[in-house]
Amino acid sequence: MAGHSKWANIKHRKGAQDKKRGKIFTRIIKDLTISSRDGGPDPDTNPSLRLAIQNAKGANMPKDTMERSIKKGSGEDSANLQEYTYEGYGPGGIAIFVEATSDNLNRTVASVRSIFSKNGGSLGTNGSLSFVFDRKGVFTFQNSTLEDIEADELELELIDGGAEEVENHEEVTIVTTPFEDFGTMQKKLEEIKLEPQSSELQRIPNNTIEVSLEEALKVMKLLDKFDDDDDISTVYHNMELTEELQKELSE
């Protein structure tokens, strides 16, 4: 499950961390393969591949795994990989935006439709959620990498790079930019030699919806099903993760 840091990435069951790590690796491998296929295997001349490598390093992906994925991008096996998006609603009217990378469109759309329909949701038409989510740049930093930079100086540099919001958490700092400033922030970070743990474009809901605990658990079950599908890269939603829900999920 992915989305804005304020309401996403809840670790809600045993083994969720290992599963999440595996999901991140799957997504990054596909990013490496596609970016290498589309822009060539040289990160110096391929910004998309450079970003994918940066995210792979931030996720502690083994070097040989990265190299195999990049090499695969120049082979025939990568030709059929395509990116798709799907939009729909879950229980309680929660908006759900699905991003997928697949070599078989028919398989993927059938799976997405089935997950929605079997878990109290419905698949909609593309564009139906355009008013619900905004696409933004999200940069995550381990706080340990920011210790040598004076806080006020860092804030000024981030603002100059297009930062819209800076969230300070116990272990990480998350910087959000408008979609159009994603590249500007990347250049700024390269300029000040600051490497984020991850840099990505995410779909951030304009507002969240609170539903009953019963409905919320149904939504979480639906999100779990998407997490279990290897074709699904990322899923965004606009459900409010209330304290009651978080308590229930942590038990």
Output the CATH class name of the largest domain.
Answer: Alpha Beta
Principal-axis shape equals globular
Between the first and last Cα atoms, what is the distance in angstroms? 19 Å
Give the count of structural domains: 3
CATH architecture of the largest domain: 2-Layer Sandwich
What fold name stands as the CATH topology of the largest domain?
Alpha-Beta Plaits
The CATH homologous superfamily of the largest domain is named: YebC, transcriptional regulation domain
User: Helicity, in percent?
Assistant: 40-55%
User: Order of helices and strands, N to C?
Assistant: HHHEEHEEHEEHEHEH
Number of helical elements: 8
Tell me what the structure shows.
The relative contact order is 0.18. The chain has helices spanning 16-39, 47-58, 63-73, 105-118, 151-160, 182-191, 213-227, 243-250; strands spanning 82-89, 95-102, 122-123, 133-142, 165-168, 172-178, 198-205, 232-237. It has three domains: 16-78, Integrase, N-terminal zinc-binding domain (Arc Repressor Mutant, subunit A), CATH 1.10.10; 82-131 and 207-240, Alpha-Beta Plaits (2-Layer Sandwich); 133-205, YebC, transcriptional regulation domain (Alpha-Beta Plaits), CATH 3.30.70. The strands form two sheets. The chain has a four-stranded antiparallel β-sheet with strand order 3-1-2-8. Strands 5-6-4-7 form a four-stranded antiparallel β-sheet. Helix content is 41%, strand content 21%. The longest helix has 24 residues, at 16-39. α1 crosses α3 (63-73). It starts with 15 loop residues before the first helix and ends with a helix. Mean pLDDT is 87; it is low at 1-15. The chain is built from eight helices and eight strands, in the order αααββαββαββαβαβα. With 251 residues, the chain is α+β, with helices and mostly antiparallel strands. The chain is globular, with a radius of gyration of 18 Å.
